[in-house]
Amino acid sequence: MTCPACTAAERNPRADEFANGCLSCQARAMAVTRADLLEDYQGAAQRLFGDKFKEGHALVKQWLAKVKQRRFT
Ligand SMILES: [Zn+2]
Hints:
Layout: H1 4-11, H2 23-32, H3 41-49, H4 53-69
Helix pairs in contact: 2-4, 3-4
The protein binds zinc ion.
Residues 2-3, 5-6, 19, 22, 24-25 line the site of zinc ion.
């Protein structure tokens, strides 16, 4: 992970701190808001990540796994 906000989120994936311009933060924001459940997730991710779609999507999956581990009950 690439920035202080992401490092903090490694310990607490629900931390709602997001750094501007950080791909991993953008991916984390999508994971936390469960954007993956959107019918138009592909489109949303493509608009958000642009030509970094593959990289971003991989990060979304990583963060989703972490968020699910700590999900609210
Ligand atoms: Zn970040």
